[in-house]
Amino acid sequence: MAHKKGQGSSRNGRDSNPQMLGIKLFGGQLARPGAIICRQKGTKWRAGRNVGLGRDWTIFSLIEGKVTFDQDGRRINVLPIETPAPAKA
Q1: Which of 16, 22, 38, 81 has the greatest number of CB atoms lying within 10 Å of its CB?
Q2: What share of the chain is helix, strand, coil (3-state, %, to 5)?
Q3: pLDDT single digits (tens) 74-85
Q4: Comparing 8-12, 13-17, 26-30, which segment has the lowest mean pLDDT?
């Protein structure tokens, strides 16, 4: 049995690439259709109204509107922006 390691053996030469997870658009911000609101692993945040859930659990907007959170910040919705009614002359 060898009492010394061979040349070039390294035990901790591994590193993984960052995954860039988390909230990308916060409450009150404007989301356009297809905009990524949240990247996650699993369903830490749940998809609510007017948002979609991708195959990798990415939550994205389906409409243009304002991002809102409910259920203690665990469900993400996008509410449409109310346009003011035109003034009558």
Answers
A1: 38
A2: 0, 30, 70
A3: 999 999 988 787
A4: 8-12
